[in-house]
Amino acid sequence: MNKIVHKDNIQNNVSQKQLVDMFDRSISYLRVSLTDQCNLRCLYCSPKAIKDKLSCGELLSYEELLRVIGLAAELGIRKVRLTGGEPLVRKYIDNFIVGLGKIEGLEDIRLTTNGVFLGKYAEKLYQAGVRKLNISLDTLKPERFKEITGADLFDKVWASIEKVVSMGFHPVKLNMVALKGINDDELVDFARLSLTHNVQVRYIEFMPIGKASLWSRERYLSTEEIQEKISVLGELHPVQSAHMDGPARIFDLIPHSVRTNEKKTGRVGFISPISHQFCERCNRLRLTSEGKLRSCLLSDNETDLKAVLRAGGSDDDIRQVLIQTILDKPKGHTLQEKDKVNCHGEMSRIGG
Ligand code: SAM
Q1: Following DSSP, what letter does each residue of 99-163 receive, concatenated?
Q2: Three-state DSSP class for 299?
Q3: Is residue 36 within 8 Å of 51, Cβ to Cβ?
Q4: Best substitution site from 45, 214, 217, 288 to test ligand 1's pocket, by max atoms within 8 Å of Cβ?
Q5: pLDDT(48) > 80
Q6: Can you list the domains of the chain with their CATH numbers?
Q7: Distance of CA 45 from the midpoint of ligand 1 (Å)
């Protein structure tokens, strides 16, 4: 085993394995795309044009996933996010999450979802130990929701959000991709939500990814532009990021004037892969729905872990692939330098 990537991390007198890459980044977070299928057709992510979906046999089975994640946890992975595609369209996901919860060393299981089936699964997810949810929501207008996603389901998603908040999931993060000319007139309304609801609103810069992307400079809004727009509502005060927090920069939103139905302070986050590259803090590894390991969302380099699994690979073979992928993790991406799509894989397969 390669010693470069394996350090001992002593915390509270407990020694834990830690995976460290060539640039001294500790890799503790695995994002897993459970399926490339999605029940929505967001115009910037997965339009109808993408027809060649993976067959069931092409996806890693739950047994294969549990094996890989178990080995990754032994090596030092502490946090797993289930994403896709839409993870809640994969059958028996609740049983799978129960299995994940039994993996020793895994401290945190999170889910990213479009929320459509969340109401149905909320209790099961809660029982399985999931507490942290990211829900993608690009608009608060039902008609616009239909235009963006191709489905008239805003009310259903909103009801799911209210349900999970009232059940005690925390944090519930609402992810909105800021798209100029599409939803930028709602930036302030989203920020206000953090004052009226127990949610954290997170603004994501639109990235040039995949064939489906309608990305262009004209559609892109930088974090600075977003912050400028929401400053009419209040002041932003940076919050120290917590253990295992992702790349979002989090702020308290302190309103200029407080209405009776508002909390005193809301919390908003900004994910700024283009304007504030966070590669030096990136702690992520990805497992795509095709069973490939990928160390950077924005680089098409992948290792075929499924091939190793299905050729009868031993646990050591799998560990070696995990370690090698981490060793090959690039220092950073070059998105700022090129106004073009430089990640050709689809977000739904890689796992957004
Ligand atoms: N179906 C789930 C959902 O909707 O949350 C999980 C998968 S989806 C691909 C994950 C996230 O990726 C969503 O928040 C989506 O808005 C975001 N996303 C997709 N394409 C993107 C792009 N080009 N730039 C920024 N975010 C993108």
Answers
A1: HHHTSTT--EEEEEE-STTHHHHHHHHHHTT--EEEEE---S-HHHHHHHHSS--HHHHHHHHHH
A2: coil
A3: no
A4: 45
A5: no
A6: 14-350 (3.20.20.70)
A7: 7
Q: Which residues pair with 252 in a beta bridge?
A: 237, 267
- Residue 302, strand partner residues: 294
What value does the mean pLDDT take over residues 207-214? 75
- pLDDT-based confidence at residue 1 (cuts at 50, 70, 90): very low
Give per-residue pLDDT as tens, 56-79: 999 999 999 999 999 999 999 999
Which tens digits make up the pLDDT trace of 117-154?
A: 999 999 999 999 999 999 999 999 999 999 999 999 99
Q: CA-CA distance, 220 to 214, in Å (whole number)?
A: 10
Lowest-confidence region among 19-23, 75-79, 257-261: 257-261
How many Å apart are CA 134 and CA 114, to the nearest integer?
A: 8
Q: How confident is the model at residue 3 (pLDDT cuts 50, 70, 90)?
A: very low
Residue 12 to residues 15, 16, 308, 348: CA-CA distances in angstroms? 8, 10, 37, 39
Amino acid identity, position 143: E
User: What's the chain's average pLDDT?
Assistant: 90
Instruction: Say whether 56 counts as a known binding-site residue.
Output: no
Residues 48, 41 contacting (CB under 8 angstroms): yes
- Ligand 1 center to residue 99 CA distance, Å? 26
Closest protein CA for atom 10 of ligand 1: 352
pTM of the model: 0.92
What's the gap in Å between 261 CA and the centre of ligand 1? Answer: 31
Does residue 4 surpass a pLDDT of 50?
A: no
CA dihedral 115, 120, 121, 123 (to 10 degrees): 120
CA atoms within 13 A on the CB side of 123: 1
CA distances from 29 to 78, 84, 161, 236, 247 (A): 6, 16, 25, 28, 12
